[in-house]
Design goal:
The chain has 279 residues and is of the alpha+beta class. It contains 9 helices and 10 strands. 39% of the residues lie in helices and 18% in strands. The chain has a 4-stranded mixed β-sheet with strand order 3-6-7-10, sandwiched between helices. Strands 1-2 form a two-stranded antiparallel ribbon. Helix 3 (86-96) crosses helix 5 and helix 7 crosses helix 9.
């Protein structure tokens, strides 16, 4: 039995025309902005220093996911609340025989959006690629049965994900799920701390040399606090403590220093390093 699909209203067409004009003038514009959301919960109108623009992030989880994505060294841009071409998503919904996103009272179609589209350089090939990401909290995606097996939840959330995934497949774009397990509070706190130094111009060779000395100190005294390793490197390089802290934050932010960010860091805490596999 074929399900009934929603209709395209004049209002949604007008909104799309307005959005495209805004896009042409200002570059990326989030389809859903913080003032548009009426549901309860925390929202973030965030000035991204790396992209030098205002971003609209619709939950704490989205904010943390955005920070994790935008500070990857190979990332060129992160676009949030990206709309999918409405005729495409309606076509996909018909082919999957799944009800398209809609206002269930009026049966008017909503525009399908993806939380993030990331433009990045493939580190293996040097090719510029795009990847679409949908953020949801883990228990919105998955369920654990009595035997401990993990599977995707059934129901309306999964139906919407299927539409979204298939739209990106037809656009030849990778599509991935991201949750709070990929973007923890601790990792985001560390990135926010490091990014306070963003924009300070320091030659990469200096950051590499600092990192080598920091690691030399760490391998000799792995239980020492971060400040001790910074002081060791600064003494060798004749830098001040303040310069050392800046170098540490920038080297960690740019992943020159292979720091484990799974726990909240402070200068008077010890620090763990990632292994060669990045774990």
């Amino acid at each position: 039995m074929r399900v009934r699909q929603p209709l395209i209203s004049k209002e949604i067409v007008s909104s799309l025309i307005k959005w495209k004009k805004e896009l042409a003038v200002n570059g990326h514009s989030a389809w859903v902005k913080v003032p548009d959301v009426r549901k309860m919960g925390r929202r973030h109108v965030h000035k991204c220093v790396r992209q030098n623009r205002i971003t609209h992030l619709l939950s704490d989880g989205e904010y943390r996911a955005y920070q994790v994505l935008v500070w990857r060294p190979n990332v060129l841009a992160v676009y949030e609340q990206v709309p999918i071409h409405l005729p495409l998503s309606l076509s996909v919904a018909r082919d999957l025989n799944v009800v398209h996103h809609r206002n269930y009272k009026t049966n008017e179609a909503y525009v399908v959006t993806t939380d993030f589209v990331v433009k990045e350089v493939d580190v293996k090939t040097g090719e510029i690629i795009s990847t679409a990401y949908s953020f949801k909290y883990w228990d919105q995606y998955y369920v654990i049965d009595n035997a401990g097996r993990v599977s995707l939840k059934k129901g309306r959330t999964l139906q919407k994900l299927k539409i979204e995934r298939e739209c990106w497949r037809r656009k030849n774009t990778k599509y991935k799920l991201i949750s709070e397990l990929d973007a923890t509070k601790a990792k985001c706190w560390n990135l926010d701390w490091f990014s306070q130094e963003w924009g300070i111009q320091i030659d990469r060779a200096i950051k590499v040399k600092f990192s080598e000395l920091f690691l030399e100190s760490w391998y000799s005294h792995p239980l020492s606090i971060i400040q001790d390793h910074i002081d060791f490197a600064c003494k060798k390089l004749s830098y001040s403590k303040c310069q050392g802290v800046t170098l540490f934050k920038l080297a960690a932010l740019e992943q020159i220093l292979p720091i484990d960010l799974s726990e909240k860091l402070k200068l008077y805490y010890p620090v763990k390093l990632l292994d060669q596999e990045g774990n």
